[in-house]
Amino acid sequence: MSATRTAARDAAELAAVQPLRPEQRSRWRGFVLPVAAVALWWLLSSLDVVNSALLVSPAKVFDTAVEQVASGRLWRALSASLAREATGFLIGTTSGLVLGALLGLSPLFNRIVGPSFNTFKQISLFAWIPLISVWFGLGDVAKVVFLSLAALVPVVVNTCDGIRTAPAGLLEVARVYGYTRWQTVTQVVLPSALPSIFTGVYLALIYSWLATIGAEYLLVAGRGIGNTLIEGSEHFQMDLVIFGMFVIGLVGWLMNASARALERRLSRWTGRA
């Protein structure tokens, strides 16, 4: 029994001194720059090296965050922004999947609509703001239209490319086995295009969140996290501005992490299929 306890103790000591695996080290290295930036920020604000009105202290930003959360203002602003983002993302992604599939599957549709879409996607997203504001006003409808355009283009491009680049070997196998057109599309083309389609959906999610902030900043009517930035800027409350930026970055990071986790799960599922 004592020999067993000695072996267990030696194994525990060996595990304690064992170096981290490369993937563990790379995961922790990502925290080095943010921690260093916050430490430098805290030092500069504590030593009054920078005008405190321009660079508020981390403690002041933390107090503002507590006040925003306790008062419910953060949740009201964030829920409004996320509702717009979800609506625009769903509309833009659904339309993009349909349009991208038609462009990829139908040569005739591609010849008729393809040149117009290629011209459309070259127009800067923010160039649509004046036209959207005239047609739809400055409210939620205008913002959702703007977000839908942001989500539409990457989904169309990646869906079309994924369909048109289906492996020739798989198409030949389908032809040999006598697959119908519908079977070839549903069992060969679309499954092989899934990685590219998911990339387009992932980009649409990120672009629509960025467009949400831009729409709220340019189409100022209503409530949202972008309007929190405007309020802080107009009243020269840099703590509120920095807090809003942290919230925007955190939400974007959570969306990115969730999309990547879903992509890995779908990749394993499609691999097994």
Structure description:
- By secondary structure, this protein is mostly helical.
- It has helices spanning 2-17, 22-29, 32-46, 58-71, 73-105, 107-120, 129-136, 140-164, 168-176, 181-218, 225-234, 238-272.
- α7 (129-136) packs across α8 (140-164) and α8 runs antiparallel to α10.
- The two termini are 49 Å apart.
List the helices and strands and how they pair.
Blueprint: H1 2-17, H2 22-29, H3 32-46, H4 58-71, H5 73-105, H6 107-120, H7 129-136, H8 140-164, H9 168-176, H10 181-218, H11 225-234, H12 238-272
Compact description:
The protein contains 12 helices and no strands.
Features:
disordered N terminus, elongated, mainly alpha, 273 residues
Count of helical segments?
12
Give the topology string: H per helix, E per strand: HHHHHHHHHHHH
Proportion in β-strands: under 5%
Number of DSSP-assigned strands: 0
Quaternary organisation of the protein chains = single chain
Unreliable sequence segments: 1-5, 11-18
Largest beta-sheet characterization = none
Q: State mean pLDDT (0 to 100 scale).
A: 80
The coarse overall form would be elongated
Radius of gyration: 25 Å
N- to C-terminal distance: 49 Å
Helix content: over 70%
Structural classification: mainly alpha
